[in-house]
Task: structure prediction
Amino acid sequence: MNEAFVNTAIDNGIATVTFHHPKSNSLPATILAALAKNIEQAGADKSVRVIVLRSEGEKAFCAGASFDELVAIDDEAAGLSFFNGFALVINAIRTVPCFVIGRVQAKAVGGGVGLAAAVDVCYAHESASVKLSELAIGIGPFVVGPAVERKIGAAAFGFMSATPATWRTAVWAEQKGLYAEVFHTQEKLDAAVDAHARELSTYSPEAMAELKRIMWCGTEDWGSLLPERAAVSGRLVLSEFTRNAIAEFKGKAAAR
Result:
């Protein structure tokens, strides 16, 4: 799997949206745009009762923003455009009329934590530790923050954000509400995701749409809030601190 992709497969009312990137399932702008589009299209399909969001591979669910694209940003407009990609994905998950189930099979960093937080129900493997690493490179979890805070609360979100070098275990994430349930094997994780998706596919789409609307009450301003947060990240990513931090990180990774 050397090529990045996003695809959707629909079977018996279940739309499975799968993404992959050869660099630990990181998220360049093309993947973000494709994710938002695929989720929106699945939600608009009258035959779809539930969406499953997953990534390919076993090493990482999602490594967050692509460092290659971060270092290529050369002005605030480009920064806004890139980080707004996360806003588009989160808002797509928020506004589709069906439930979105997340399958987190391995570690999640930064924007990957945002995806796990944005889905309506998230199941994970015991290896799926989490980290909000943004502050370490001179930015912050500004766009994904509302989704993460909504799931785990302001105190836990602040703690994660202020300790960007620290991994939190999947059990910790389950205790805080990010994960609905954690499983010891990938087989049990997949069985749980499949069983819940099949169960939801039998229920009334109208009732689920109304329930989802109620569940997301209070987020109606995210259509403007998240792009505003994206602008903050787009400005900060241009700093010398961020450039140096990313270069140092990539240097360490190359030396391994």
Summary: The two ends are 21 Å apart (CA to CA). The chain has a mean pLDDT of 96. The longest strand covers residues 5-11.
